[in-house]
Amino acid sequence: MYLNEGQYGGKKYIQPDVIRQCTAYQFPEEKIRRGIGFDKKDFDPAIVNAPTLSSAGSFGHSGYTGTYAWADPAYDMVYVVLTNRVYPTRYNAKISTLSVRPAIGDHIIRCLKK
């Protein structure tokens, strides 16, 4: 629905303006990457919270336990990564420090571009 301006199955559930507002940077002048309910690509390219190849219009959410969902309207793409970062211990941070979840998105985008 978010990639289709609030429509699903030919029925409109959410107004397009609401979708645009929820998936937009809310305070870009302050370099805050948050939207309403969604994360956005960080302004600092050294911070990899999203696929580096994703567009500025992309948005998503990452969870503490390793779950991750990212959407990019420019590529008509949504992907979800389900992991359990906290097993066997919650101190395992490799999924974040190695940017595994955004790297999966970059791989998908490269495949879509072919």
What is this entry, summarized?
The chain is of the alpha+beta class. 22% of the residues lie in helices and 16% in strands. The chain has helices spanning 16-22, 94-97, 100-113; strands spanning 7-8, 11-12, 59-62, 68-72, 77-81.
How are the strands of the largest sheet arranged? 3-4-5
Written as H for each helix and E for each strand, in order along the chain, the element string is EEHEEEHH
- List the total number of helices: 3
Name the beta content range: 15-25%
Largest sheet: 3 strands, antiparallel
Number of strands: 5
Question: Distance between the terminal alpha carbons, to the nearest Å?
Answer: 26 Å
- The general outline is globular
- Helix share, percent: 10-25%
Overall radius of gyration? 15 Å
Overall mean confidence score, pLDDT: 94
- Poorly predicted regions are none
Topology (SSEs and partners):
Blueprint: E1 7-8, E2 11-12, H1 16-22, E3 59-62, E4 68-72, E5 77-81, H2 94-97, H3 100-113
Antiparallel strand pairs: 1-2, 3-4, 4-5
Any overview of this molecule?
The structure is a single chain. The protein has 114 residues and is of the alpha+beta class. It contains three helices and five strands. The strands form two sheets. The chain has a three-stranded antiparallel β-sheet with strand order 3-4-5, with helices on one face. It is globular, with a radius of gyration of 15 Å. It starts with 6 loop residues before the first strand and ends with a helix. 18% of the residues are buried. The mean pLDDT is 94.
